[in-house]
């Protein structure tokens, strides 16, 4: 029998990196920057956090003191945010200031980010001198994945609603805040205008460059947190190279699936997370090829959504009109 | 000789307005050297004027003063030491050919470009305008030729865009203020309408209100009438006059001389980036303005030779076209175009002109009807349902100058010979293309049509609008067509280029080509065409004789369908 109470929490924890990634990418794309570097940025976000946590744990181990929960969370969090912000900054410098092609830059940054993660992952593994190709940061992870009080005692409710680490709740709150800002505030209106028609925004007195930089960097930071959540909470602090897989691309697919609305993403990411792990729930003994077909589901759903929004052709559901295009005011 | 005389007159006029005896040039030097003294001086001047002249002078103080403003793009000097003054309570026309630097000059006032030299004074105070926001803060608002609106947003959202206010974004309150502005000046606008649902004139209204909403009292309009019908233009002018009487300074950039004469108080003329002179509209005329603008005597009458031996060339019967969304674009359209005549098509934009031409050119599917090409020997070829290639293969020499020059007509990133080759690349037998022939065509076009280009290998995108159009028309004519279809052939072109295009069309007409001319300027349509078909909502609302029809008649036919019995 299909066990929903065990399936949904797993789908949710699977969905959180996707939600972080898609919220970050949506904010970025609303400014007209198609940041395909998101998968790489999520790697960098994860790795930066791992590096911070690793050295803090080592320092504690050497001095023999125990971990301070607050600092154990703060250090990886700050490291992760700085790492991914730098990636966002680099992307903006290349595409906004130097007007490099956004697709090429993004893809290059993904390659770079994955390489960055794996390189430093490999280095840290060597430092620990362990025999398995992974780093375990269980002490830090314990701080990150601490559940809300009552998760155990309230039965199914606790398991479904209260059993996640604080980053999971943060992801949902950030997504709703982002949706609110985009829809109903002046900043959101200006940001949407920049992504739709930068020349118009510019003529209206909006600083296009500033909006592009700020939104892309904030978007990158948020996406990077998805990587951090993955290592610290989802895998219980175990970093293994290439472990993050293609979740970054799934996050970008999710942006399209949710037609650039972070509030829809909260629910859609859980759907994606569910589809992503559905193969684990098919009866044992089924042909392995079928399993691979199940893994395709999130992408198939995205393609179907793309087809539907193209057919319906509603203006509001289209990508920002100047997505992927550079803007230069004195271009003639 | 003539030029210097003009300049002199212009300067005299300039001083008359202020009642002080010194020339523009002197004052420029003076103000550049002693900005502080200048301020005092201005104050004194104003006071004198008030005492002497009363109301009139009080409202006509200089709102904007540009002194020796220069802007350079690469090796091109777009504005060369231009000095200009605009007063409150007046409408100033900025007149000049394409590439004379009108828009560049105004873009510096609105903060899009930053001047490379010179000073700008607003109300006598020297200012630095670094961004559109600075311009707004100084009360300067520009309505661009290509509307700067976000399609997926409502009118209100577009209007409040970029305004930094404290507190929550309150679209409802904004909509109320917009309605109030509409009432005050006589606009009609639904604040909650999405821009993509708007007509051109509604979009323009949104643009103007956007500027008024920011309390701008210096308005710049860049070719505001280019896309409006005569009736819409009248409405706009009425509003502009209201705003002038409200004490605003209005600058209007336009090519259309009769509009300059109708709406403006003074005219500033630019030529090749230089300020040529200032005229008082009431004391000048179209001929004088044109001569100053072009720098030599220009014949303002469009020639209309009698058609020679007209024979039916294209016969359209019962043509019905539906757009992809199922909207009826052409409804039972029938007409005949003769060889050796210019067949004008008038109508509000979007009334099926585009679909009609594209159907003839083989680019548009039709629901029913027929389009026949009549050969010289009287045999007929059905064109409907064929693509451009099969039309060409049948030996029908059809040329099409589409509305979207750089989208459909030419490839912006390719140079002149390559663009010419788009027409001839199927020539020759080997797998290699013949590059010599298109190069020759390009050289010819450049020479004969006086295309201004740094060289043949310049990408077409880099040329100015008029030159792009010359390249396109030149290529189409070079293929020696029997039928020449043109859509808005002079849109955005200055007088000189426009007349060159008219002459080219007339030449084709004399050669016995059937010319179809879809136009928006009724004055030109009436002067150029032998017959004019008026489209209204995809229906033929009558075909009139270009020699006898009046502007009013055609204008009315464009907006109201006649009774059933009068239908063709």
Could you describe the 3D structure shown?
The complex is a heterodimer of chains A (332) and B (568). By secondary structure, chain A is mainly alpha-helical. Chain A has one domain: ABC transporter involved in vitamin B12 uptake, BtuC. Chain A has 13 helices and two strands, in the order ααααβααααααβααα. Chain A has helices at 4-30, 38-63, 69-97, 102-128, 138-144, 155-162, 166-184, 186-196, 198-203, 208-234, 247-257, 262-277, 288-312; strands at residues 134-136, 238-240. A two-stranded antiparallel ribbon of chain A has the order 1-2. The longest helix of chain A is centred in the N-terminal third of the chain and has 29 residues, at 69-97. Chain A starts with a helix and ends in a 20-residue tail after the last helix. With 568 residues, chain B is of the alpha/beta class. Chain B folds into two domains: 2-139 and 217-294, Rossmann fold (3-Layer(aba) Sandwich), CATH 3.40.50; 340-364 and 385-566, Rossmann fold (3-Layer(aba) Sandwich), CATH 3.40.50. Chain B is 39% helix and 23% strand. Chain B contains 21 helices and 20 strands. Chain B has a six-stranded mixed beta sheet with strand order 6-7-8-3-9-10, sandwiched between helices. A six-stranded mixed beta sheet of chain B has the order 16-17-18-13-19-20, with helices on both faces. In chain B, helix 10 (230-245) links the parallel strand 7 (218-222) and strand 8. In chain B, helix 2 (24-33) crosses helix 3, helix 16 (416-424) packs across helix 17 and helix 18 packs parallel to helix 19 (495-510). Mean pLDDT of chain B is 81; it is low at 1-59 and 564-568. Classes of the chains: A mainly alpha (332), B alpha/beta (568). The A-B interface holds A 184-186, 189-190, 192-193, 196-197, 199-207, 315-316, 318, 321, 329-330, 332 and B 73, 110-113, 131-133, 135-136, 142, 144, 148-153, 157-158, 160-165, 168-169, 194, 196, 210.
